[in-house]
Each structure stands twice: as structure tokens, then as C-alpha cells.
Write a structure and sequence with these properties.
The structure holds 2 protein chains of 2 kinds.
Chain A: E1 25-26, E2 32-36, E3 45-46, E4 53-54, E5 59-62, E6 71-72, E7 77-86, E8 92-100, H1 120-129, H2 142-145, E9 156-161, H3 170-177, H4 179-193, E10 197-203, H5 207-216, E11 223-228, H6 237-245, E12 260-264, H7 265-277, E13 283-289, E14 297-302, H8 307-313, E15 322-325, E16 332-334, E17 347-351, H9 369-373, H10 380-388, H11 392-397, H12 408-412, H13 419-437
Chain B: H1 27-49, H2 51-74, H3 85-95, H4 103-118, H5 131-142, H6 144-147, E1 151-152, E2 159-160, H7 163-168, H8 178-183, H9 195-207, H10 214-230, H11 241-246, H12 250-257, H13 268-288, H14 295-312
Antiparallel strand pairs in B: 1-2
Helix pairs in contact in B: 1-2, 1-3, 1-9, 2-3, 2-4, 3-4, 3-5, 4-5, 5-14, 9-12, 10-12, 10-13, 13-14
The chains are: A alpha/beta, B mainly alpha.
The structure holds iron/sulfur cluster (2 copies).
Chain lengths: 438, 325
């Protein structure tokens, strides 16, 4: 068949059937949003105070740091609190709480422009002003990502439409429903980076998305749609670059070292919204799904909407075994449901108590499955031992710092070993040691 | 908006690290797959050697399982007999004795395999040599009269030599045909004689992705090539590879013992090297060693080399030029 792909990886059940074909619906306007000031890079300083009236799209947080993206009000109303809150990415951040006035009044923006009228510098400025970050989860500020360090450049831009996480379908829906916008966004990435070739990589089980994008780019010589093998973690930056370009990001390096800029579908859509409608990043599509929900949906919702609001909208019916922000392979389990949707929240997944039952960890039987599954070429079972016994030297030599925490190893492990937390710990320790040495 | 009791504001929900889904395969499932894959060979041994063979197999399994439970109980550890690994060891041990072996030999062997080889190192996952094979080596050293020399011939009450011993010249007799070898209608220990039954079970394990094809293919391939090259009396490449492949427990060793997870490398290339190493040692022993049979010792020797093999076969890490140890 010759589908492009990478080495290693696993095949979890896609579990996308319940939302894959359901068009994006818009959530009712939330009565309250909680907008963390740390959403990509350095935390922002609040630009508003309690009691202020704000409009949609108004900048409410900004930082002087280069590696930081501003945040904007996502509903109109009153600022009722500025307080630390727990975020679904596991961090605590100062957040601006806004109570809605119910009117959804948008700040008078320029009303948009056209890509042709913009210079690369204009686009870069807009990317920062619109508060764009990686919307796949990492939330790295996009204006930083598109600024290569001196002496380096991009020759290829890849739109990451792999969406390899089970359950998640928001990118798939955007590709089908907002095809033109995404193509426009890709052209903007090409313009701003000067890269010659654009790729849109989509796993081959998303036939509708592939067909839609293909139809939209028949005239575009510089844009290629690349169907990819359905395999996790196809959508990981490093794996995508290997699958599509046949290149590798050097160990310890950045994608730019392989000449590649990888952009999330949501971020690309947000860029085109910023260009054509002058809209900053105040809303996103989130897949809200899981067996305890009667009505799983792809929902367009405002940043800062509480998970609990979306769960009610999807008619939660039954007990929550686990509440996950993101997908089941790499998402983060939540202790509570009153956390806000961030710019990087791609999914809210509810597992039933049965699905979430803890599996006892057994001794490693050395079956080697984790070694076969690791897309990076690590030996997870050995790294697991090194990290648990704090053998940092061996862990460093075993390249623990290259682990992308994808969970493929733990997924296949018949002994149900908790490999990821052990490796994550080791990775953090080894990286810290490296920094101390510098 | 929401009125249900889902608005947890306290830390009440279960949290644990990603991934939040796991593949269905468990250790138990894998081990019972091995038991299933051994059934064709078990059935053929009952067919060829009679019910005494069934008795010895049941005895081996029962002793192994009871020993595991007893040792774990005595050590205050979790009883893990339902994971099937003790049953596999007991069955493999019984596979390694002839049908006319005394019953206590099987009992002693199973106790030795579990209590000494497996549990003293900490149980499943920690033993560095294959328990069944080590127990067999122990029995062979202590009571060679039962394990070497005269084996019951199938469908018969008389005893005779194994095909390899005849080929080797260490025993007299007429060589059975390829077909008899393939079907298992030859002298030998319980589980090793029917290449067909073992092949069926082995292919099943590969199909179910329980074992890696690399180990048996490398093992059997190496034996075939080397015995063809050096096994003949008329010079290079006059040997009889088919005979060497079908006889003498190679199928049993290659599919079921060399593939033992715990005692073989975790790296794919390591498993390839492990199979090749087993093949070389097997042929060395068969052609030039004192034994007509070399499979078990080759695997045991290679078990000891696993740490080195793993070090030499570290996969290439993404984004690096070559593998680094
Ligand atoms: S998959 Fe699990 S049991 Fe198998 S080698 Fe890796 S850690 Fe050990
Ligand atoms: S979590 Fe790390 S070690 Fe495990 S498969 Fe992914 S990259 Fe490899």
C-alpha cells in the first residue's frame, strides 16, 4: 500500500465512531469563563482589574517576555475575580474570571484583511496579537515557533491532521467543515516562513477529511495531501516529520533543525480566522466524548468554559471513572470538573468506572513489546528500572531525555507497568542535571 | 447550567498517569496462549507414547503449580499461579523426559525448576536462565540413565535410540523416515518428537503475536545452513539439513524455549542474534560435541549471554546516527 509512516507505534482502537461524523455544534454562551493567564510560555500580567467591563476579543493579559502569548476575553461581561485556579494541564495559574452580560459584544476589530495584503512581518505580528499557541495541547506560543533561530530556516510546513489520539475528532471535523480556511492558514504559514512546500498529513482512516482537503488543493502546486498510516503516535511532531519528509529531528534538537514547521489544525484555523475576520483566539473546537455521555459532541466553545458546563451539555449520564483533558494516550486525568477549557484543550474524555479501573502492576516479564512499540527506539523496560532505582547515568545513556511520553510502551505492556510516570520523572531529572551542568 | 452532582470542586476523581487505556493482552493471556500452543504436541505425545505420557504431563504441571503456590505462600508473596507461567514450566519439563521416566523424576524436576531456578531469583521476570531447561540439565546430570540412551519408541513397548543418536553414530539402529520424523513417530522425549505438532503450535504463537518470529526462524535457519554445510561426511554442503531440523527437539526448543521472554533479549536484533547463537551452538554440539543433541544446552548458554546481546543490539534512537549503548 505504501502509506507513509514511522517506525514503532501502536494500534489502539480509534473509538471515534460516536463523534467522527457529527458536525461541530456551538455551545451555548457560558455564564462564566475562567481564563488562565498562563496559556503558552511565560504567564501574562493581567491588563484588567476586578469590576472592569470587558468585550469579546479584548486583550486581558500580556507579558513582556518574548516566549509568551497574550490572552483575550472570550465573552463580554464583568471581571469578577482574578485568582489562582487549577488548570487542566496540571498547573496552577492566575486566571481572570468573567461573568457574562449575556450580550456577546465583540470588541471593534479591524474586521480582518486578506492574506495577499499582508507581509510576512504583518502575519507574524498578527500571530502574536491574536494569542496563537499550539492548540494540540503543548500551547507553545506560535510566533516563537515560526521564528527560526539565526542561521536556520524552514523549507517545509506540515499541517498535523493525523489526530492519532483515540476518541478525538475535532481536527478531523475542522478539516471537513473548514477546509478553505485551513488551506488559507497553510498558505499563511508558507508565506511567513518562506517555506516552499506545504503538506497536510492525515491518517488514512479519515477518508472524508482527506477527500475534502484533496479537492480543495487540486490547483495548488505547492501543497500536498499525504495520507498516513493509522498508527499512534502518528501526530507526534517527530514522527510526522519522519513519516512525511523522511527526515529526523536530531536528538535534543528542534523541528527547525530538520527544516520543518509542524502546525496543528486548530492553530491553522485560528490563524485564518485572525486574518480574515480579525478574531483573536477566543474559541476552539473541543471533542467531548466518552461512554458516560449520552450526547458526545464536537463543540465550538469559548476559551475558559468550564469542563462541567460542557459535560452537562453532552448529557453526562452515569458515574465518572476518570475525567481526562486530551486523549486517552497522552491526556491528563483531572481531579475535578470545574477546570476551564484552555487554548490547548483538544478533548474532554470521560471514562466509565469500569474503563478506568486501575490495573495492578506486575513484574516485567521482559517480553520486549515496549521496545517494539517505542517510536523513538528506546528500551522502556530498562529505562523504567534505571529511573525507579535513580540510576541517572544509565538513564542518560539510554536516552531517557528523548522520550516523548507518548505512552505506547505502557499501552502494550502485558504487565501493565507504569512506565510513563517513571520515565517522565527520569527525563525531568536528566534534563535538570543537564541544565545544571551548562 | 449543570445541576448534577458532577460539579466536583474537591479533588475527588481518580487520577493516574497516561496512558489511560491499555491493550487487552495480559501476562496471564500470553502464558495461557503458550499452554494452548503446546496442546498439539501434548496430544501427539499421548497418541504416540500412550497414557503414561499424559500422566507425566499432568504430574509436571501439578507439581510446578503447587510448588509455586507453596514457595510464594512461604515467602509471604502474592500467589501468582493463575498467570500460567508455572503451568508452562511444568509442561515443558514433562516434555523433556521420556515416557518411561520414573514419576519422581518429573516431580523433582518441576520442584527444582520452580523453587530453585525461578523463585530464588524473585519469581517470573527475574530468573536469567530458563527454569524448565535448567531443571532438565540438572536431572540429566544427576540421573543420566533415565534421560539419555534408551527411549521408548512410539506405539510400541520396546525402547531404542533417538534418531540423532543413530545419525551421530553413538547408537545403532535404522533411521526413521522424514515423514515419521515430521509426524513424531520416532523415539525421544515426550514433547519433542512431533515436528508437525510443534510447528502448528509455534505458528499459532507467531500468528497471535505472542512470540517474535525472529528467534525460531534464526535458530532453525542457522541449524539448517550449518548442518547442511558441515554435517556431511562427503565434504562441505553434503549434510542433511532436513533431518537436523526435524529431529532432536529443535522445534520444541526454537519455538517454545528460546522464545521464553524472561531469558531472551528484549531487543528485536538481540532476538535474531540469540536465535543464530543457539543455532551455532546446537550444531557445534551435535556435530563435534559428546552429545547427539544440543538444543537445550545451546539455549542455556545463550541465556547467559542475554545481557551482552542486549547491549550490542540497542535500537537506533530517533534523531541519532547510530545506536549508542
Ligand atoms: S512490555 Fe512490559 S513486560 Fe514487556 S518488556 Fe516491556 S515493561 Fe517488560
Ligand atoms: S513513552 Fe517514551 S519510552 Fe514509552 S514508547 Fe513513548 S517515547 Fe518510547
Amino acid at each position: 500500500m505504501g502509506l507513509r509512516t514511522f517506525v514503532g507505534g501502536v494500534h489502539p482502537a480509534p473509538s471515534k465512531g460516536r463523534t467522527g461524523d457529527s458536525p461541530v455544534v456551538t455551545a451555548p454562551l457560558p455564564q462564566k469563563v475562567v481564563i488562565p493567564l498562563a496559556q503558552g510560555g511565560a504567564p501574562c500580567d493581567p491588563l484588567v482589574k476586578v469590576g472592569d467591563k470587558v468585550q469579546v476579543g479584548q486583550k486581558i493579559g500580556e507579558s513582556q517576555a518574548f516566549v509568551s502569548a497574550p490572552v483575550h476575553a472570550s465573552i463580554s461581561g464583568n471581571v469578577t475575580a482574578i485568582e489562582p485556579v487549577a488548570c487542566p494541564n496540571g498547573r496552577t495559574s492566575l486566571a481572570v474570571v468573567i461573568e457574562s452580560d449575556g450580550n456577546d459584544i465583540w470588541l471593534n476589530t479591524t474586521g480582518g484583511s486578506s492574506l495577499d495584503a499582508m507581509s510576512p512581518a504583518d502575519i507574524k505580528g498578527l500571530v502574536r496579537e491574536a494569542g496563537l499557541v499550539g492548540m494540540g495541547g503543548a500551547m507553545f506560543p506560535t510566533h516563537v515557533k515560526i521564528s527560526p533561530p539565526p542561521g536556520k530556516s524552514f523549507d517545509a510546513v506540515i499541517i498535523n491532521g493525523a489526530e492519532c489520539e483515540p476518541y478525538l475528532t475535532c481536527d478531523q471535523r475542522l478539516l471537513v467543515e473548514e477546509t478553505e480556511s485551513i488551506v488559507l492558514g497553510l498558505k499563511a504559514w508558507l508565506k511567513v516562513t518562506g517555506a516552499k512546500k506545504g503538506y497536510i498529513g492525515i491518517e488514512d482512516n479519515k477518508r472524508e477529511a482527506i477527500a475534502a482537503i484533496k479537492a480543495a488543493v487540486t490547483e495548488e502546486k505547492d501543497i500536498e495531501v499525504v495520507p498516513l498510516m493509522t498508527k499512534f503516535p502518528q501526530g507526534s511532531e517527530k514522527q510526522l516529520i519522519a513519516s512525511i519528509l523522511g527526515r529526523e529531528v536530531p536528538s535534543g534538537g528542534l523541528p527547525v533543525d530538520a527544516g520543518a514547521l509542524v502546525q496543528n489544525v486548530g492553530t491553522t484555523y485560528a490563524l485564518s480566522q485572525a486574518i480574515t475576520a480579525g478574531k483573536p483566539l477566543v474559541e476552539r473546537v473541543v471533542t467531548v466524548t466518552g461512554t458516560p455521555l449520552k450526547k458526545p459532541l464536537n463543540i465550538r466553545t469559548r476559551i475558559g468554559t468550564l469542563f462541567s458546563d460542557l459535560l452537562s451539555f453532552c448529557e453526562l449520564d452515569g458515574e465518572i471513572g476518570k475525567l481526562i483533558s486530551g486523549g486517552p494516550m497522552m491526556g491528563i486525568a483531572q481531579t475535578r470538573a470545574d477546570v476551564p477549557v484552555l487554548k490547548g484543550t483538544s478533548g474532554i474524555l470521560v471514562l466509565s468506572p469500569q474503563e478506568a479501573r486501575p490495573l495492578p502492576e506486575r513484574a516485567c516479564i521482559r517480553c520486549g513489546r515496549c521496545v517494539d512499540a517505542c517510536p523513538i527506539g528506546l528500551i522502556p523496560t530498562l529505562l523504567d528500572q534505571y529511573c525507579r532505582h535513580e540510576m541517572w547515568e544509565q538513564a542518560t545513556q539510554g536516552h531517557v531525555a528523548d522520550c516523548i511520553e507518548c505512552g505506547s510502551c505502557a499501552y502494550v505492556c502485558p504487565s501493565k507497568r507504569h512506565l510513563v510516570p517513571a520515565l517522565r520523572l527520569g527525563k525531568a531529572e536528566v534534563m535538570a542535571q543537564r541544565r545544571r551542568k551548562k | 447550567m449543570a445541576d448534577k452532582n458532577i460539579l466536583l470542586s474537591e479533588g475527588e476523581l481518580l487520577v493516574s498517569s497516561s496512558p489511560h487505556i491499555r491493550a487487552e493482552e495480559t501476562v496471564d493471556w500470553l502464558m495461557w496462549q503458550v499452554v494452548i500452543a503446546l496442546l498439539p504436541a501434548a496430544i501427539s505425545s499421548v497418541y504416540f507414547f500412550g497414557f503414561r505420557s499424559l500422566f507425566l504431563m499432568v504430574l509436571g504441571v501439578a507439581t510446578a503449580v503447587l510448588t509455586e503456590a507453596a514457595v510464594e505462600k512461604a515467602l509471604g508473596k502474592e500467589i501468582t499461579i493463575k498467570d500460567g507461567s508455572a503451568a508452562v514450566t511444568g509442561l515443558l519439563l514433562a516434555f523433556n523426559v521420556p515416557a518411561n521416566a520414573p514419576w519422581w523424576l518429573v516431580v523433582l524436576g518441576a520442584i527444582f525448576a520452580i523453587a530453585v531456578v525461578k523463585q530464588t531469583f524473585g519469581g517470573l521476570g527475574y530468573n536469567f536462565v530458563n527454569p524448565a531447561l535448567t531443571a532438565r540439565a540438572f536431572l540429566l546430570a544427576a540421573w543420566p540413565q533415565y534421560l539419555a540412551g534408551n527411549f521408548p519408541l512410539p506405539l510400541d513397548t520396546i525402547t531404542g535410540a533417538t534418531p540423532l543418536a543413530i545419525l551421530d553414530g553413538t547408537a545403532a539402529g535404522t533411521l526413521p523416515s522424514y515423514l515419521d520424523l515430521f509426524l513424531g513417530n520416532v523415539g525421544g522425549v515426550l514433547g519433542e518428537t512431533s515436528a508437525l505438532a510443534l510447528l502448528v503450535g509455534g505458528l499459532y504463537l507467531i500468528w497471535q503475536k505472542v512470540i517474535d518470529w525472529r528467534t525460531p526462524v534464526a535458530f532453525i535457519g542457522t541449524v539448517a545452513v550449518l548442518s547442511w554445510a558441515f554435517g556431511g561426511n562427503g565434504g562441505l554442503f553434503t549434510g542433511d539439513p532436513l533431518y537436523h531440523v526435524l529431529a532432536g527437539g529443535l522445534m520444541l526448543g526454537a519455538f517454545f524455549m528460546a522464545t521464553d521472554y524472561v531469558t531472551s533479549p528484549v531487543t528485536p536484533k538481540g532476538r535474531l542474534g540469540f536465535g543464530v547463537g543457539c543455532g551455532i551452538i546446537t550444531v557445534l554440539i551435535r556435530l563435534w560435541g559428546g552429545y547427539p543433541e544440543g538444543v537445550s544446552y545451546s539455549i542455556l548458554l545463550m541465556n547467559l549471554l542475554v545481557p551482552f546481546l542486549e547491549r550490542w543490539t540497542v535500537p537506533r534512537v530517533y534523531g541519532t546516527k547510530s545506536a549508542q549503548a
